[in-house]
Amino acid sequence: MNSQLAWDDLRLFLAVAENGSLSAAARQLRLGQPTLSRRIGELEAAVGETLFVRENHGTRLTPLGEKLLPAVQQMAEWARAAEAVLEQDGRRPEGRVRVTAPPGIAFEFLAPLAAEIRQTHPRLQLDVLSSIDMLNLSRGEADIALRSLRPQDPDLVVVDLLRVPMRVYASAAYAARLPAQPRVEQLDWIAFAAPYADLSVNRELARRIPDFRPVFASDDFNVQVAACKAGVGAMVLAHAPHPHSVLQGLVALPIDLGGAEGELVLVCHKRHRHLPKVEAVLTHLQRGFAAVRAAL
């Protein structure tokens, strides 16, 4: 067994272990799958044992791989901590900042904000990682997160929090076909499809409507909004007015959601909170939060 294992090789091992397949890990790492497979094979040769069992629909760790995983996860956190120390040494806001957010927030909030950030800090590069799945800030998978849930990890800091009412929206053409006071079960609902069919919006509609079945479902929030604007049906949306809101072109329906509210939480790892480049982006995001609060 070779005791001189390189971090770059262990980083590949970690990606495969956490993604559960070579193909998913290759996409995350932006490597070709044959290259990744070869590199993992070389790592296993250096270790002297296999680390993964290759199966038809992915990979699973061997007993040795299970033992190795916690140590490599810790190494990933140490590597990110070392990067943060080096970045802190320079005070100019420059370099790449990765922000992860759900697709709707990424589309209507972060993408337009990028123009403002670019004008103010031309040396910054903003990477927006659009996903419902939560990336690991402790290991540097992203620098900033916009989430619908407050973090449980004590190392993660809530920088700001936006609370907005939830309402039912539809196109004007669809709304015109409804009774003056429609009931919740009379609406054609647009909701999430698998693998996100158990998200809170779907669960709440299922609680209110017996045998709930959406007329249109998608795993992509932006596709749902497009269907709503096309008049397919109604959907539950956060009432968060701002210049680039997806609410434009939609009307609120008189459906009582019992005071339901949504939260958008701005999260950062405490280790990165005061890095100049991260602080610069956080400042713009907080201004965006303040603008929405002022418009409510």
Characterise this structure.
Helix 1 crosses helix 2, helix 1 crosses helix 3 and helix 5 crosses helix 9. The protein contains nine helices and eleven strands. It is globular and about 70 Å long. The strands form three sheets. Strands 3, 4, 5, 6, 9, 10 and 11 form a seven-stranded mixed beta sheet that branches. It has a two-stranded antiparallel sheet with strand order 1-2. A two-stranded parallel ribbon has the order 7-8. It has 296 residues and is an alpha/beta fold.
Secondary structure blueprint with pairings:
Layout: H1 7-19, H2 22-29, H3 33-47, E1 52-55, E2 58-61, H4 63-88, E3 95-101, H5 103-120, E4 124-130, E5 144-147, E6 156-171, H6 172-176, E7 190-192, H7 200-208, E8 216-218, H8 221-229, E9 235-238, E10 250-252, E11 261-269, H9 276-295
Helix pairs in contact: 1-2, 1-3, 1-4, 5-9
What percent strand? 15-25%
Main structural class: alpha/beta
Task: Please identify the top-level CATH class of the largest domain.
Answer: Alpha Beta
What spatial form do the alpha-carbon principal axes imply?
A: globular
